[in-house]
């Protein structure tokens, strides 16, 4: 596989990932016809880990942002580690602010922290993959294959959930 086609494939997978993440986080997997059901909830929590039973949600937030760190690592490899991490934090902050502005969910500092941690773990995974595989073409191929294998069932599952709801 040619390097250029790998980069195009990665960018397409990244766009699909961002669209799915936005639909999950901001729109709570609602269809446009059901958005009225989630609008109107505006909550702001600035105390980390406030509330009970939030560890499962915190773990989910970490997991959903790990791919973001990997994508940023490979697509923005010329950026410094700090700039890559700031990009992860910025996207998470954008999601949290959007939830508050549009009154569609809880804006929560714990979510921001856990999302950022997930992005940080993803960047770390990318750095590890880079050190192990060494050749840029092998790195891009490995990440493209992994992203494809993760994206197809995820989109299928999200589609199924949408149809069943």
Overview of this structure, please?
By secondary structure, this protein is mainly alpha-helical. The protein has five helices and two strands; from the N terminus they run H-E-H-H-E-H-H. The chain has helices at residues 3-25, 55-75, 81-101, 109-133, 136-164, and strands at residues 41-45, 104-108. Strands 1-2 form a two-stranded parallel ribbon. The longest helix has 29 residues, at 136-164. The model has no long low-confidence stretch (mean pLDDT 87).
For this entry, give a set of tags.
165 residues, mainly alpha, 2 strands, 72% helix
The count of strands amounts to 2
Largest sheet: 2 strands, parallel
The global form is globular
| Distance, first to last CA | 39 Å
- Cα radius of gyration in angstroms: 17 Å
Instruction: Please report the number of helical segments.
Output: 5
The pLDDT mean sits at 87
């Amino acid at each position: 596989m040619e390097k250029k086609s790998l980069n195009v494939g990665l960018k397409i997978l990244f766009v699909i990932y961002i669209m799915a993440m936005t639909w999950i986080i901001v729109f709570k997997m609602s269809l446009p016809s059901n958005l009225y059901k989630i609008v109107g909830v505006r909550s702001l929590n600035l105390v980390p880990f406030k509330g009970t039973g939030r560890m499962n949600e915190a773990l989910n937030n970490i997991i959903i942002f790990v791919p973001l760190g990997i994508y940023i690592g490979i697509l923005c490899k010329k950026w410094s580690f700090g700039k890559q991490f700031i990009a992860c934090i910025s996207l998470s902050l954008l999601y949290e602010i959007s939830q508050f502005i549009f009154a569609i969910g809880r804006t929560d500092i714990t979510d921001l922290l856990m999302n950022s941690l997930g992005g940080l773990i993803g960047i770390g995974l990318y750095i590890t993959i880079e050190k192990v595989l060494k050749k840029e073409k092998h790195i891009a191929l490995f990440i493209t294959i992994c992203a494809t294998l993760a994206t197809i069932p995820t989109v299928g599952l999200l589609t199924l959930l949408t149809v069943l709801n």
